[in-house]
Amino acid sequence: MKIYIINRNITLEHNNQTSLLSTLEKNGISHEYQCRSGYCGSCRVKLKKGKVSYPEPPLAFLQRDEILLCCCRVEEDLEIEI
To answer: What contacts 24+ positions apart, CB below 8 Å, involve 11-15?
Structure first.
């Protein structure tokens, strides 16, 4: 699946074999994180387009237009703002 980062004008490929956070890091894009488990919410980003799911509901509070990079599963191409 394709991940388009709006504010950096970058498109990446993501296959859900690792977290979205790890995919960003492997491509030289640093983003804040703490727990990597959905508890703290520090890896929260704005979802502009697309769909994600969570294997287990995250404990971090999320707005309707936010996702957690550390634990979401990408269901379709995404547009995010980090």
So the answer is: 14/74
Where are the chain's structural domains? 2-81
Check residue 66 and give its pLDDT.
98
Q: How far apart are CA 13 and CA 3, in angstroms?
A: 6
| 26-43 b/e (C-beta count within 10 Å ≥ 16 → b) | eeeeebebebbebebbeb
Percent of the chain with pLDDT over 90: 100
Confidence at 65, pLDDT banded by 50, 70, 90? very high
Is the domain defined by 2-81 classed in CATH 3.40.50.1820?
no
Cross-strand partners of 52: 74
Specify the 3-state DSSP secondary structure of 49: strand
Full-model pTM: 0.94
